[in-house]
Amino acid sequence: MCGLVRAGLIEPRAYRQNETFQAAVRFARSEGIIPAPEPAHAIRAMIEEADAAREAGEAPVILLGLCGHGHFDLSAYDAYLAGELEDPEFSQADLDAALASLPEAPALT
Predict the structure, then answer these.
(1) Entry pTM
(2) How many CA atoms, within 13 angstroms, populate the side-chain half-sphere of residue 15?
(3) Tens digit of pLDDT for each residue in 84-101?
(4) How many CB atoms within 10 Å of residue 41?
(5) CA dist list (Å): 59 to 14, 43, 45, 55
(6) Which of 36, 49, 57, 67 has the largest CB neighbor count within 10 A?
């Protein structure tokens, strides 16, 4: 993943916990599947992309790879629904520092 970011092929995004769980609950209500918190971040990005496409009058195909259900994470969903889920800040500077600390990846060919 880091090599793909460095090559400019994908764009990293960071979302806060509550907006991520909001997207996961929306997904669960529409699809009947409770996603694990990890793919819930991708669901948040998917919703963002779909909303932007709708506003632009576009109809792209958006592919989501859902990996894992949230049955073992129900306490996190409970905390979110109770308004008690922590929402730590993760800034662009934090993201840049994390990426900068990674070892150099081999060039993609």
Answers:
(1) 0.72
(2) 20
(3) 988 877 788 887 888 788
(4) 18
(5) 25, 17, 16, 10
(6) 36
